[in-house]
Amino acid sequence: GILAVEFWSTYGGSTGEVPNERGELVDITTPEGLPFGYEYFGNFPKSMFTMFQVLTGDSWSESVARPTIHTPDALVNIASGIFFASFF
Prior knowledge:
Shape: elongated
Low-confidence stretches: none
Distance between the termini: 20 Å
Strand order of the largest sheet: 1-2
Helix content: 40-55%
Number of helices: 6
Number of strands: 2
Strand content: 5-15%
Structural class: mainly alpha
Largest sheet: 2 strands, antiparallel
């Protein structure tokens, strides 16, 4: 979790674009319009949730849980995370 934040939190920079193997810039923004690195590895809780998603192989959280746990209100984020994790 902590290493993932360190390695990938700035992946995609502020524009959400990275060069591919040909040197062309490729857009890697998420459905919410955020750069890939920030959305999935921006801080420790985001990184742990991403690792949980990879570990379980579940994709439901991409469209259901992730938008509800990444709001500006920290209390809502924590409560939503506990709510969805309790069903696993």
